[in-house]
Amino acid sequence: METTKKEKKFDTVKMMREIRDRISAETQNMTFEELKAYIDKQLSISKTKRIGQ
User: Fold this and answer.
1) Given Cys at both, which of 11, 25, 34, 52 links 30, Cβ 3.0 to 4.6 Å?
2) Can you tell me the distance from the alpha carbon of 4 to that of 50, in angstroms, rounded to the nearest whole number?
């Protein structure tokens, strides 16, 4: 039995890793207060609410 390999049009895992790496680089030296402000800013840009609010 032969298996066929499909060509991926979109690699979700690769995209998630790239986003995680970018965020880690942007926030690596932030204090807790700076990190909270960063998260609030990113949530306001995307118009997403915090969990539980």
Assistant:
1) 34
2) 43
